[in-house]
Amino acid sequence: MDDYPQLLHHGGANGVTGSCHRLQIAADRALLVDCGLFQGQDADRLDSLEQHRVTFPVDDLLALAVTHVHIDHIGRLPYLLAAGYKGPILCTVPSARLLPLVIEDALKIGFTRDRALIERFLDEVEHRLVALPYKRWHTVLDDERHRLRVKLQRAGHILGSAYVEVDSLDKASGRAQRTVFSGDLGAPYAPLLPAPRSPYRADTLVLESTYGDRRHEDRRHRRERLKAAIDRALENGGTVIVPAFSIGRTQELLYELEGLIHCARDARWRELEIVVDSPLAARFTQVYRELKPWWDAEAHRRLRSGRHPLSFDNLYTVESHEAHERIVDYLARTHRPAVVIAASGMATGGRVVNYLKRMLPDERHAVVFIGYQGAGTPGRDIQRYGPQGGWVELDGERIDIRARIDTVSGYSAHADQRDLLHFIQRMRQPPHHVRLVHGEPAAQAALTAAIEAWANAKGHVIRVTHCGSSTGNQQ
Q: How do strand 366-369 and strand 239-243 relate by DSSP bridges?
């Protein structure tokens, strides 16, 4: 007799992208958590179409629970529906607002630019969306065989992000199981977002491990390093290029920059132009403004004082491609300092590539990475080889790197090793099993050692597994 529930993975188990996890509660019943695109090195094994196609079973899926709307967590949604998935899409109220924007962009890039087809698909997605409040149980199924409930809790990663608590009960055997899927957990003190709080308990915890082998700078130090990078550009007459994903990182960075400008005594800072060169990021920022009820207490204090952290005088947005080309040329030729925030966050495409091609060879400029750079991406290559005076390939061209390259890790939207440990340590009843996902092998190995060391010191029995360990779990 098969032992349920079982964990299976259709992505994101032994890599950082493509998150897609299945909780099988019976041979014919399962819950899917996330359905994301593969990116960077995770995508290199398959051609561009095949890597996204959904080949796993969908007829047994009771629901899809979405932890947050980053593309590596929801980008395969069109392929899931194309494969025949008919069930609901469970997410938080803010995610329900943001998800259609992400999917629309993904459709334009990967499927079609036919407006009628896109509208039809978006109508289908919005019909399936079930927006759930935080902290309340939602019953997915309750019949003579099983009861399955989910609860979404704040994850502190991006606006609307959640970790998922799942209660499953097999009524024939009486076996109850609580499984927690962390999604992506945020670091404490992130701009705009309350820090995640640990669940009361878990039998099995499916835990991200992106930064399982690292520690971030604290908020004060990361702000100082960001300010120092911009100060150098002001001195050199250069531009600071910040590759950032359109949702989450862009808005948090704007919040921090507004604070630096507000407190600045230097006239050059008060006149510094902050350029968001991404129509999608501008749309997300507008929705972020509309979702103020989900901001944290610090952000609300700024609002009450009359400040507008996502809409301030120095902020400019670039919409058209023609305007984009003009500002790239203008900033590359002139000595007017500016901070440019442009997608994509790993420099795999998008408008940031045009800035990098023009400005990487010029030592006046700087590139500041504030987010994770996946293996196999141009961002990782620039981050690794730039300080050595190396080069990177962009759009098939070899670009020499003379610009200053900085990494300010404290702006990562991911928890670091200490935060991930705290997530476990602060449970009243720690898990019996921790399944590490969403991390490179070195990060998973380091986090495994840290969890086991803490558990042994406290007398807890915690089995830690990940792909490559002898668990019987499937990828």
A: parallel
Q: Which amino acid is at 265?
A: R
For 136-156, write each residue's pLDDT tens digit.
999 999 999 999 999 999 999
Which secondary-structure segment (H or E) carries 453? helix 441-458
Residue with tokens 């008919």: 86
**List of residues 6+ apart from 391 with CB closer than 8 A:** 385, 398, 399, 400, 401
For 82, phi then psi, to 5°, come to -65, -30
Question: Up-side HSE of residue 293: CA atoms within 13 Å toward CB?
Answer: 4
pLDDT (0 to 100) of residue 474: 35
Distance CA 202, CA 427 (A): 8
Q: Which amino acid belongs to residue 82? A: A
Q: In sequence order, what DSSP letters do the residues of 318-359 get, joined into one string? A: --SHHHHHHHHHHHHHS---EEEEES-TTSSSSTHHHHHHHH
Q: What are the counts of helices (DSSP H) followed by strands (DSSP E) for the chain?
A: 14, 21
As given in the structure block, the two tokens for residue 453 are 């060391």
Count of CB atoms situated within 10 Å of the CB of 429: 12
Task: Tell me the two tokens of residue 339.
Answer: 């901070």
Query: Which of 186, 318, 191, 194 is closest to 259 using CA atoms?
Result: 191
pLDDT score of 433: 97
Length of the chain, please?
Answer: 475
pTM for the predicted model, two decimal places: 0.88
Per-residue pLDDT at 109: 66
Is residue 241 within 8 A of residue 342, CB to CB? The reply is: yes
| In contact, 158 and 411? CB cutoff 8 Å | no
Whole-number Å distance between alpha carbons of 280 and 289: 14
CB 187 within 8 A of CB 155: no
pLDDT in tens, 284-311: 999 999 999 999 999 999 999 999 989 8
User: What tokens does 94 get?
Assistant: 């803010």
Torsion of CA 396, 398, 404, 407, to 10 degrees: 40
Name 221's Cβ contacts closer than 8 Å, sequence gap at least 6: 410
Radius of gyration of the chain (CA): 22
- Both tokens of 298, joined, read 């610090």
What lies within 8 Å, CB to CB, of 460 at 6+ separation is 430, 454
Closest CA to 166 of 11, 15, 24, 18: 24
pLDDT at 52 over 80: no
Q: Per DSSP, what are the bridge partners of residue 89?
A: 64, 129
First CA to last CA across the chain, in angstroms? 22
